[in-house]
Amino acid sequence: MDPEKKTAGGEEKRATLRYQDEFLHDWTLICTRIENGLKLGDQLKQALEERASLEEKYSIGLERISSKIFPPATESTSMASAIKALRNETYRRSQQCRDLCETLRSDVLCDTLNNMLENHKSAYDHLFSSGKRIASELQKRYTNFTKLRDNYGIARHNIGQLSLRYHELSRKKSSQEKITMLGGEILRKILELNDMEKEYMNSVDSFDAYHKFYLTEMKHIIDILEDMDTKRIKCISDTLMKVMVYDMSYIRNLQYDSDYVIKSLQEIDVEGDINEFASRFGNSNNIDNHENSVNNLALVTGNQRIDASQVKKESWREICRHMNNIKINDDEFITLSTSQMAEKNIALDNIVDIQTIISNLVNPVTAIKAQKAVRVLFSQFNMIINEGAKNYTDESYLNDTEFHQEMDAILEKDEKSHSMESFSTACSADVATSKNKDRAPDGMPNSVEGFTDTSVHEKVDFQSVYKSFIETIVKLDDNNKLDSKDVENALRIINNQEEGLAESNNCDYYLSIIIDEILRREGNKLYLYLGEELRQVLFKHMNMIMELIQNESNTWLFRKMLFISESLIVDESELFSVIYKHDVWSVVKIWEETILLCISEQFQRGILESDSTELEKFRMLKNIKYFDSLNNVDNLSSLMKRFGIPEIPIITLFTKVCSQNGLEKSYCDRLIHKIKNIK
């Protein structure tokens, strides 16, 4: 058949050819094509996996390179800007390589190519075995048909030979006995021939019927194989197209960054840089020309100052030596409020370029970490110390009786609640409280949606209600046979009080009570026997908390719910089985924040352990067992696997958190090693 035909207009039109028309009696050619196509898919899969690994290694190398590029403090403005642009371009390229690696593994390989290969391999194995069985049965029936046909032909031929012999004896007038015996033999052969003819005709009918069945089934199998081949071609085409799209996006991003670097390089002013360096550090520097900007700037350190003129004229090594010899009076420095710092002309940003000093005094790797630490400290400093708020670092306030009374109240409240959270949690809560107080005028509620719900919430002590409810249901056990009075009492306590779980602080307290009960049990497993009615109430509460976690992206509640999910067993069923299908478990951002939170809390614990005094204070405020249970990074990776997250995305997420927050590679490698060893 000619695949191309001439139409009426003279244009060539491709004819549609079907596999079942062309390969019905030789379907093994299609099988060979399918097998080779699957091999091609495997080769492409291996190539893309290797490409993703190379991109990941390239990303790590670029990030390491970017950490080594720092302009020295003696460098002039235009050159320093160009070097910083190059460093940023290198770092962004490393991030783009990492994103490309993750995209290849998740979108291209996992979601597209791998699924096609797995589905097609299993479907092809089934179709091939079915087709082989049908073809084998057809061949078997055809062999039986040919055997009976040949036997029938031989029998007819033998009867014909005996008939000729019979006529020959009759003509020769042989003895009657021989003629009679020969006639009897012929009759016996004829009867056998009749039976053989019936078997032969039955084999013909059987073969014809099965041949029709064979054609029907084979057409169906070949149609499926053709559909598989079509989808395979489209899948490989889509895979390669996705790779090209991501590659082009990667190239465009590189072009944008490279254009910015080129622009920065073109703006380098050689003569201007020479003049700038000479004016900043040369002997001809005239201090009077800068009296409006730097003459009054000085860094207060105890009873001494470092003038801006010293920074200009002395070498960096001399300045560092001079700074080391100065005794800093910390008590005087920390008592300065923002207004006092302004009165004393302390403007740190105008005196010292933090990034420049750090990059000159330490190696580049340490510089990155130090810069991040300084930024975090300054952000906390600016948040806590502000005009119109209490200055907790003021010396007079430290000695104030009111301060000690407030601290005692906080400690007493913490002991009563048993909510042993991290220091950072407490700070977050205090900041949120102060913000709400700042927003609301005196005598007015903070909520702007209405006064009804607010007044109800003020009258109901939800924390007391939830504590009583949890304590009541924990006392129920299998031996009590779920006394109806106890069940009614538990339902009465919580009746119409679920609305309190719309607030995160109540949810936090609710989960904290459960965790306290879990930690009191052997093996950190809390078994509850509630019955149908109470079980539905508890599960309703958990679902409400899960909704609040998702709506507010509350990492703290998320972390507690993770711990409870495998430690709370209600009527022989883990809480995990109830909350497993919730959408929040597929939110990558909250997993990322939880990993970072647990790692930072573990670091905090390690830092405090290095100082016995601080550790003792920490133990006074925190339940160490509670703290360690919530911040177990190793257990976190195990829980992520339980919630259906594969190992490779877990490793990728941990690596991303470590790299973005400047953690040591050795620490990241230890985490990954532990993740791989967790079954």
TrEMBL record:
UniProt keyword terms in alphabetical order: Coiled coil, Cytoplasm, Cytoskeleton, Phosphoprotein
InterPro entries: AH/BAR_dom_sf, F_BAR_dom, FCH_dom
Residue ranges of every copy of the F-BAR domain listed in the record: 11-273
Subcellular location as annotated: Cytoplasm, Cytoskeleton
Lineage: Eukaryota, Sar, Alveolata, Apicomplexa, Conoidasida
Name the UniProt record assigns to this protein: FCH domain-containing protein
Organism for this UniProt entry: Cryptosporidium canis
PANTHER family listed in its UniProt record: NOSTRIN, ISOFORM H, PROLINE-SERINE-THREONINE PHOSPHATASE INTERACTING PROTEIN 1
Gene Ontology cellular component list: cytoplasm; organelle; plasma membrane
Pfam hit, one: FCH
